[in-house]
Amino acid sequence: MNVNILNSEIQEFIKKNIGISISKLALQKNPFPEVEWISILNQIEAKTKSKDKLPTWFSTKNIIYPAKISIEQTSSEKTALYKSTIVSGASLIDLTGGFGVDDFYFSKKIKAVAHCEINPDLSNLVKHNFEQLEAKNITCYSGDSLATLTSLNKKWNWIYIDPSRRNDAKGKVFMLKDCLPNVPENIDFYFKNSDSILIKTAPLLDISAGLLELKNVKTIHIVALENEVKELLWELHKEYNGAITIKTVNIVREKLETFDFVLNEESKLPHFCLPQKYLYEPNSAIMKSGGFDEVSTYFKLNKLHKFSHLYTSEELIDFPGRIFEIVNTIPYNKTEIKTHLENKQANITIRNFPDAVESIRKKWRIKDGGNVFCFFTTDENNRKIVLICNKIK
């Protein structure tokens, strides 16, 4: 960590160049020879990436940023805030501290937080930033987190882990045993130090595969931000062997779209019908969960087809996802498409349909965008149809 980067003139230069092309700046002469030009450029690029993702860091003076990849990989403040609602108690240890965004929010709920980071430079940088952020109840530990957990020799209310994939695991199916730390291998040791464990994984991890590797899972949180799934959170409690709850969360601006259900619980079979007045498309968190029948039964909506994962009703309801009014339902054939869509503009979505979006656009010369939304899908009678809609939400 180069403290010279905190020179007031350098900090002002960084501030003035937020959003400026790094490739253009790289061609300029370094106005501050006491600091490597690449270090200053990195601060500009990383801080620019933090503007929307980490507004608290962005607006706080004398923050030092790591490489931009660390900013890209870290939790956003919005998802970190959600994670903080899961934990409680007096103490939490984060075995994979990174840039410390999650710990900053944990510290607002937990009396004492330990931030463990194997990279000593990053650990020092994060410690400095916590001081600027006045997060006084976070202690930073540099070195191997297992060794830190052993040496501290105490019982924690929570252990938090965000394992990263090993470089030699590229191209393999994503499994927790291919990550560092190896959670399945160390799970018994973790439970000796805490009765509650929260694990963050990338959305790439298949839920059924994760359940094969983990034990004592009580809740799985699927967290999306603006309809893009960002992370899976696995809540483990020692000795717990009951039903597993799936919590889907879509953070839309400052609101939460939520839908919960119990995994593998026997539920009523969904009803199927032809398209009615309104169409409902679940948000990405629900799509990741696989709880399609549960959506139908809970919201009392009809499904269009077993594999279409689109829902319909005559009466409008509130729903965690996109809502449309169906203007027209047409069969997918040459005559109908030429009449209603050829050479026109529309937003296209496919669900349980054999052709790709680009193939459809090219074949019928349909331009992207506009106010018309078309769903190319399959109805309960296995007929290919197109739903021409206006968006309500």
UniProtKB/TrEMBL annotation:
Pfam families xrefs: PG_1098_Fer (PF22013), Thump_like (PF18096)
SUPFAM superfamilies reported for this sequence: S-adenosyl-L-methionine-dependent methyltransferases (SSF53335)
Transmembrane segments: none
InterPro entries named among the record's database cross-references: PG_1098_Fer, SAM-dependent_MTases_sf, Thump-like
Coiled coil: none
Domain PG-1098 ferredoxin-like: 278-320
Residues of the THUMP-like domain: 321-391
Protein name (database record): Uncharacterized protein
